[in-house]
Amino acid sequence: MLLLFAAALWGFGNVAQKTVLVHLDALSAVGLRCLIGGLLVLPFVLTERRLPAGPGHFSSLVRVGALFAVSITLQQLCYLGATVTNASFLVSTATVMTPLAAWLLIGERPTASLAVAAGLTVVGALLLSGGIGSLGGGDLTAILSAACYALWMVELGRYMQAHARPFTSAATQFLGAAAFALPLGAMQGNLSLAAAFAAGPELAVLGVFSTAIAFGIQIAAQRFTPASHAAVIVSAESVFGALGAAIFLGERNSPAGALGAAIILGAILSVAMSNRAPRARAALLAGPIQSFDAAIAGAPAAWASDRPAATSDPMEECDESCR
Predict the structure, then answer these.
(1) How far is CA 319 from CA 308, 315, 316, in A?
(2) Distance between CA atoms of 195 and 315, rounded to whole angstroms?
């Protein structure tokens, strides 16, 4: 449910991603929205300063941050040549790419139901965009962004399950993307105080809701949700994006496009429901249980002195819970 809420924030935020380009170039818009999101998350990093950093923490964090910066920059660039509706649905093709990336990178085999849902998502995206022959430069950039997002989601899931530092991860990704995009916007775009103030409402929506809150939810949720399942659920962004484009920008879809949206929504709901199965729940609990066992293993040795000495006498069986 939290991932679905994050998808809604992204979907409606896609309208702001399109309209912000009236005032700012794509690189400046990415840099400023990520700067806002990073500054909002940064104070919460202090709550994780006492957590131990396991082996490979820094290198994993760098990979997550680099993939995020490239993905979100390409997503913003695609709005230069694609409608909000098409861009929203085409970025959602990360749904079918993420299970493949998870299979190749970490050996997470996709289930049959997940493979069917991913395939239906591709069919829905093609119906929405009018077929492969209708894809333009902006559409192809959206698909490239989806491929980068697929790799990012797999790496993010691996980082969260190994290190479990959501605020550190979020702040690093947001501020890293800002450090990457803002200098390029200053050199090649129209970054200025006047342009930033003119785009203030859009930047507030993108920085607070679509970046700090939405990505923060996903980063935290991927500690408990496999990357393949998360990819399908957050692809609901496409449906919310089309709805926002229809309400605020007057974009309309053909009957085939509406059918494609319905197919994608059905695929999302099927994966969301299958993720509630007891077997899936047991798999998701494996990580926290292991960390709990590790904590018990590291308990102070002084506790041992409080236990009674072992004897060779027979153990007395007792049913009294308080004894």
Answers:
(1) 20, 13, 10
(2) 78
Report how many helices (DSSP H) and strands (DSSP E) the chain contains, helices first.
Answer: 16, 0
Kindly give, in sequence order, each residue whose CB lies less than 8 Å from that of residue 271, ignoring residues fewer than 6 positions away. 113, 114, 117, 229, 232, 233
The whole-model pTM stands at 0.77
- Joined together, the tokens standing for residue 124 give 């829905």
Query: Tell me, what's the pLDDT at 131?
Result: 65
Structure tokens that stand for 179 in this block = 């450090």
Using alpha carbons, select from 237, 226, 235, 234 the residue that is nearest to residue 275.
226
Q: In whole angstroms, give the CA distance from residue 111 to residue 265.
A: 19
Cβ pair 142, 82 in contact under 8 A: yes
Q: Do the beta carbons of residue 246 and residue 109 sit within 8 Å?
A: no
Q: pLDDT (tens digit, 9 = 90+) per residue, 66-123?
A: 999 999 999 999 999 888 878 887 888 887 788 888 888 888 787 888 888 888 888 8
H or E element in which residue 142 lies: helix 137-163
C-alpha dist (Å) from residue 88 to 82, 146, 175, 222: 9, 10, 24, 21
Length of the chain: 323
Taking a C-beta distance cutoff of 8 angstroms, is the pair 195, 28 a contact?
Answer: yes
- Amino acid at site 108: E
